[in-house]
Amino acid sequence: MGAAMEERGRPRAGRVTRFLLWCGAVDTGHLVSRTELYRYSMVGVFVLLVALLAGITFTLYASIIAGAFRPAFLAYAAVWALLIFCLDRSIVGEPSYGGSRRSGPARAVFFGARVALALIVAWLIGDALVLMIFRPEIAEETARVHERQAAEARQRAVARLELRAAELRKRLAHNKDLRDAAATAAERARKRYVEEAKGVSGTGLVGYGPAAEDARTDYLDARGELRRVRRATARQDAGYDRQSAALTRQIVALGRGGDKAVAAVPGLKKEIDAIYANNGWLTQLRGLSAFMDANRDPAIASLPWLVRGLFVTLDLMPLSMKALGRWTIYGSRQRAEFDRQMGRDRLRADLDRARDRLEFDTAMTRESWRHGWRIDHMRTAPQNTNGVRR
User: What is the largest CA-CA distance in the chain?
Assistant: First the structure.
């Protein structure tokens, strides 16, 4: 009768309220007033909001890292939100038993892991939100970084082209040296032939004798070698000149800028396109760092820390409510129920031990009695029908 009256006196909760109480892992048997019903419904609201915030921030973080939103991020965000929901629900639903010391270290480790997770998530998500807040400024800084990297890529391309042009100049100089050497050899052979024919050197005989004929043959061979070297190097020099002129035009065009000049250099356009397409997490962080370094405003410098603190506060709201819940009436009812249950368990254990002891004593007494009866029976000799002992 009293239980029925107590049940009739409890506040009734609607479907939405029951769902929120379930989200907050609240035992409705300990709620005796409508104020407590509203208060602990808010626990479920905070657990839901933190899980929803975790899913949204995960989507935001993944989109910033990837550089664009993808529908697949929603599935991963839902899994992350469910994980945070289950984790926070297990935290707020774990009873606060003040008299139990065994669960203290385990709870401290569990709560410490939740705090560490909140700090890590707040740091990452805080940076992501700051990147969204300063997106225009970061875009300008990123554009400057991209322009500088593209200019460096063009300079590297110009350096490569200049190396190739220098190699061509070396080849042209080498061909000129070959021609000069062949011309010198031909001139030396001609001079020796003329001096031999005039009798100035060699045998000293004037006229075209055998020695002069040999000198003439050497001279003709040297002239032929000179013509061959000139023809061969002339063809090579023509190709080298065309390549050198093309390289010079590319170098000048790259110095002036322009898409055509970039496209004319093999691999340069692909490299520059990759530079401008790189808008990932690290690139944006570099842009944010450059923006922070350029603007020493305390408000701008403190904004990332304010955002991180806000995320930590929101993320740890269920844990904070759980930590402060042990001093509430609801927590005292939980501890009282725990004490009653522990008392019943101890009483049941004492009764079981007493029953076991009683059964043991009864069994020992019965066994002692049976043993004594057998001894007495053995001591008393049986008599026959005449009254004479056997």
Answer: 188
